[in-house]
Design brief:
single chain; alpha+beta; 4-stranded antiparallel sheet; 1 helix; about 50% helix
Length: about 120
């Protein structure tokens, strides 16, 4: 093997390493951007769910249900999603409302809030 072919082979190896490093850098950046977008989408959906639960509590509280009543409010009939709102607490504690988001009979996010008349 002569000196010139060895030099071309080294240059090709260095070039290949640079291309691989650049591909790794671009791939890492793409994963980072995708993860950030996914986290942002998750945050927005979580915020929307909290707002829906708060609105459900306000609606049930304004309607003045029985103290032991559970109210089921549909969110989306097609995807089988709803919110269950119930009054919790007894005479020795302040009354609270609890709203729970359900999807296909599985509970997920839940919040509690003091009843306005008791706060």
């Amino acid at each position: 093997m002569n000196h010139r072919s060895l030099r071309i082979r080294r240059t090709g190896s260095v070039g290949l390493m640079l291309v691989l490093m650049l591909a790794l850098l671009v791939g890492t950046f793409a994963v980072s951007v995708a993860r950030r977008a996914s986290n942002e989408r998750h945050h927005v959906l979580h915020h929307q769910s909290i707002m829906a639960l708060q609105s459900a509590i306000e609606a049930v509280e304004q309607s003045g249900p029985d103290s032991d009543a559970k109210v089921r409010l549909p969110l989306d009939q097609d995807s089988n999603r709803w919110i269950m709102v119930e009054s919790i607490g007894g005479p020795e504690t302040k009354r609270q409302y609890q709203a729970t988001l359900y999807h296909n009979d599985q509970p997920s996010l839940s919040i509690q809030r003091l009843a306005r008349s008791d706060s």
